[in-house]
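Write out this protein's structure.
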Amino acid sequence: MGGSVSSTGRAVLIAQMTDIHVGFAPEEGDNELNVTRFKATLGRLIEGPNRPDFLVLSGDITDHGDAASFAKTIEILRDCPIPILPMVGNHDSREGLLGAFPDVEPAEGGFLHYVVDAGLGLRIICLDTLEDGRHGGAFCEARARWLAERLAEAPDTPTLIFMHHPPVVAGIDWMDPAPDEGWIVRLRDVLEGQGQVQAIHCGHLHRQISTRFAGIPLGVTPSVAPLVAMDLNPIDKDVPDDRELITTEPPTYAIHRWDGENLVSHYERVGDWQVLARFHAGLQPMIEGMFAERE
């Protein structure tokens, strides 16, 4: 896959929606909660003031990876004017994603990862971290080789990496990997010393997380589907303790802004918020004063 941004004279905006889980309750049809949340989030992206140049769907697009759920997803996205960069998560299937997004070209080994030119000198690398039948991430030798080769192709080009599974321990015990899992060690070995990588952005955890991995800033974008409850206490799998697991916190998406030199990530919850101030003549002196401070 490939892409480019038009010459608009502004920064490149890369939206990220993750963990949509279409098809979690297929019997509810268009009233399925996750479909409702997906449509609301997509509507905000398209109709809001910050229409992005790309939309990354960073995995768990569907809940079961089935053709019907991917077909429902494509129907919702049919009139989306934003170029879409789809990725597989552990709930998806490669076959289902390829059926829905035929422009994705599998890499060697059938992995669905690729590089996109985002414009303003920024490269996007989308990584496939799916291992069929496994909840957690995977990054085998073949994938490590592929990523190392892609990074070596452009060692001085600013690069943004997207992957579904965060290779870090966030403290949400039942969702976390072990810190020394082989795939994490392998990924760290590839990324250490890669100064061109501006950031890594992930999904999977259904919560917003900020940390570092291999010396690189790493962020997790919250889910479009219901969020994972924030409970940082250890969990005993043998002792149900009635803790909260999933909540109906609002769907959230990210916009990553690249101005040619700096990458900044913004996060917005989607809801029926009340606007308390607009830029009208009465507030113009305040806005002018803020600009005057820059001079």
